[in-house]
Structure formats: C-alpha cells, structure tokens
Amino acid sequence: MPEPSCNVIVMERSVESDLVRGGHDASSEIGAVVPPIHPSTTFARDGNYDLVSDYLYSRHGAPNHVAVERLAARLDNGAGALVFSSGLAALSALIETVPSGATVAAPRVMYHGGQLWLRRLDETGRINLVLFDQTRPEAMEEAVSSARPDLLWIETPVNPTWDVIDIRAAADAAHGVGGRLAVDSTVAPLTTRPIDLGADYTFHSATKFYNGHADLLGGILVTATKDDRWAEVNWIRTHTGAVMGAFEAWLLLRGMKTLYLRVDRASQSAITVARHFEGHAAVDKVLYPGLESHSGHEVAKAQMDRGFGAMLSLLVKGGFEAAHRVATSTKLFIPATSLGGVESLIEHRAVLEPPESVVPDNLLRLSIGIEPVEELIADLEQALA
Q1: Are residues 162 and 120 in the same domain?
Q2: Phi-psi region for residue 318, left (φ > 0), alpha (ψ -120 to 50) or beta?
Q3: Which residues are CB-neighbours of 378 under 8 A, at least 6 positions away?
Q4: Measuring CA to CA, which of 7, 157, 188, 249 is 20 to 30 A from 267?
Q5: Which of 59, 70, 126, 275 is catalytic?
Q6: Active-site option among 163, 184, 200, 379
Q7: What is the mean pLDDT of residues 342-349?
Q8: Of the residues 55, 76, 108, 111, which is catalytic?
Q9: Which is higher by pLDDT, 347 or 15?
Q10: 87 shares its domain with 216
Q11: What is the average per-residue pLDDT within 21-33?
C-alpha cells in the first residue's frame, strides 16, 4: 500500500475569513473563539524597565485598536490604518496636516458635518477652502488646476445626491499639482477601493457600515504609504486623545465580522428598490448610481466592483411638504439620521442641511438595511400614497 502523504497544504486566509475571525486566532491558552477586550489604559515594564509588549499607554494605541487597524488596512489594500473616536476626529487629524493657509478642495455636496468643519477652518483663516460642482467632472479638474490644493477631499458616491466622482481622474489632478487625494468611502465599503485607484488616503466613518449596528462612534483612516505625513497624523491622534475606547473597538471588530454579508444583502435590496421606484407616479427622480439612467453610471461600473451600495435618494413630487409627509409616514423605515446599519432609515435631508446647502428640499435619503426587500417597497408605497 502507498504511504500516506505527509504534505501539508498551506491555505492563505481570505480577507472575508479574517473578518469573520476578527483577525484573531483562538488563544492557545484558553481556546477563546472571540477576541478578548483589553480595557487597560497602561502597560507594564520588565526588570530592565523595558516595555513587555508593543504597548505603552492606550492613547498611543492598544490591542483592540490594532486588531481593527490591521483588518481595515487589508480591506482597502493600504500600508496602514488608524482608528479614531469618530469620523470627524479622523477628518480633523488629516486636515491638521495641511499647512496653515494652504488650500483644501472639496465637492459642493458632501457629508454636511465635514463640510461645516472645513467652512469653519476657512472662515478662521486656517485653510483656504475651494468647493467645486461635483456634477461636472471638468469643474473638479479646473478647481484643482487653478487652486493647486494641498489636499483634494472627495466622496464617491456623494452623500446624499449620489453623484459619482472618478477617483483615477481625481488622483491624477491632485498629484499633478503636488497635492494629495483623500477619498471618503463611507458609503461604498468593499465595493470601492480608492487606494487601488490612486488615492493617498481612504476615509471611513466606522459608525456606519463598518460597525453596522448603530451603537458606536468611530472613524478610520487608511494610507497608501507610511510616510512622514502619516506619522504626523498618528502623532496628532495621540496628542489630541482622539482614540477609540477599548469596548468600542471591540464592538467595531464584532460588527466587521458580518460586513460582507450586510453590504451584499443591502446593496442587492437597494438596486431592487431603486428600479421599482424609477418612473413612479409620486417620484420625480431616483438617485442611485446602479441605475443605467444615472449620469455617473459608467464611472460607477468602472470603480465599484461589488455592487453599487446600499444608499439611494428619492426626489418626491410635491416639494418639501410632500417629502416631509412621506418621511413621517413609514412603518418599517425608521425616520432617523445616519446610515449603514442593519435597520433601514429614511431621512428628509432638508431639515438638517445648513442654509448654504444646495441639496433639493424634496430629497429623501434612504439607507437600505437587511429587512425583506418586498416589505421595504411596500412600506414606501403606503407612505407615498
């Protein structure tokens, strides 16, 4: 009889499997399947007064932070990642590296909290803010060419109108004037990998899809290279104390376990909802990059390789009042701010947008969750009626 083979098959673990395991191998000591929480804020030294591990003090980083960061960097094919106490804390840390008085360029429509912060920095003279019309590709290139920004900040798809910005074109424009490109990919995790398309940084509000359960605040920055500017971002996080708590980092790690399942399910439902209401008698327009009628559909197809995401908006016929009535008449959709959770949310954006916003007053933003899609459609139908 032939001798049994002793060859060992070494299988490289996929990023999906790493997420499911939280980047964790079961402890050889107790066999724990779930990664532990490390709530300690400080870490011991040995008899020579050397640190016994890589950790000093939790403001510099801690085990649960590092676990999230390793997975986040792998998801976006980055050289490294940092987790922050909130999305705005992550944005602020990166903007802090912009030289005083230098220019930041950003789309006219974007996450309103981020734009409010950029406007404040512009008003105080800390930066020079240039906003461009994200619906015109040439407007971005013109703004970058003339203003020569140190940092070009974009979202794609743009929240809440879901315009699509060409990431490769943005990277070429920014790098052509010696600047950097940061891409807010909060609404397109997994479906878009900006660093692969030339971006220097990818940003995620981890509060949203990464966590997926609406129970923590967090932000993540991923970098293409670990250079001096990235070291400065790390220094800023440490010395402003913008770090996430251990329990929140553990919750985030738990949420990331199901990221692929949640995003895939919600994206499939979103395109079903979008197609159902396109041409609906009570709807002026459906804004969703997965629709062939969307002006950015071809660019979206080129840079979104795992579906078109779970976010869409409806422009309701009848203006502000009609939109407000629909937003307060749903039974399954929850009228609430935020996005990316397992529960579906509806929001009348005009109520929250700042006075200078150009978002239409009849726009309803939908964050599609994981409920049965036929129930979501039926709920919107009864609200529109």
Answers
A1: yes
A2: left
A3: none
A4: 249
A5: 59
A6: 184
A7: 97
A8: 111
A9: 347
A10: yes
A11: 73
Domain boundaries, position 307: 259-384
Q: Which among 183, 224, 181 has a CA at the least distance from the CA of 202?
A: 183
Token pair of 167 as six digits:
């990431």
| Whether 59 is catalytic | yes
For 284-316, write each residue's pLDDT tens digit: 999 999 999 999 999 999 999 999 999 999 999
C-alpha to C-alpha distance for 171 and 176, rounded to whole angstroms: 8
Does a structural domain hold residue 4? no
Q: CA torsion 290→291→295→301, rounded to 10°? A: 40
Say how far apart CA 87 and CA 84 lie, in whole Å. 7
- Choose the most confident range, by mean pLDDT, from 6-15, 59-68, 217-226: 217-226
Q: Is the pTM higher than 0.90?
A: yes
Q: Could you tell me the CA-to-CA distances from 3 to 6, 7, 8, 272 in Å, in that order?
A: 9, 12, 15, 56
359 CB neighbour count, 10 Å cutoff? 19
C-alpha dihedral (111, 112, 116, 121), degrees to nearest 10: 10
